[in-house]
Amino acid sequence: MTKDIWINLPVKDLNKSREFFSALGFPLNSRHANNNEMASLVVGDKNVIVMLFPEATFEKYTSIKIADTQQGSEVLFSIGAESKEEVDVLVSKVEQAGGTIYSKPIDQGWMYGAGFADLDGHRWNVLYMDLSKMPTE
After folding, report:
1. 45: number of CA atoms within 13 Å, CB side?
2. What DSSP designation does 74 have?
3. pLDDT tens digits for 70-127?
4. 36 FRET partner, CA 20 to 30 A, in 58, 84, 93, 104?
5. What is the number of other CB atoms lying within 10 angstroms of the CB of residue 110?
6. CA-based nearest residue to 112, from 126, 99, 102
7. How many CA atoms lie less than 13 Å away from 84 in the CB half-sphere?
8. Which residues of 9-47 are buried (b: 16+ CB within 10 A; e: fewer)?
């Protein structure tokens, strides 16, 4: 059975991406700290690994061109938050780090969330959900 998952993302500037995700509070994997061909960060309590590769390296691994994130989206990464305040804090960090907020925080009663794009246009959202208030119909 599968035990782990790594999300692999192409980036234009590896060092700027390291700085961006560090500013959001994602710990970087020290194993790749001085590596010019990759970086990795850890997301959440389940320790999901996100690998960052320069675009040329990513294309070499995948044998296909990278999608233009300005023209479309292939995936949406969702991050769970512990509170509405945690959503707001992350949104603020994204703005300060140079990311783009494409959906400001919205309160739907049972769910509160916002969406952002990282420096390379990959789309993420951060959500706080109170499942006890989730509509049943």
Report:
1. 3
2. S
3. 898 889 999 999 999 999 999 999 999 999 999 999 999 999 999 999 999 999 999 9
4. 93
5. 13
6. 126
7. 10
8. bbbeebeebbebbeebebebeeebeeeeebbbbebeeee
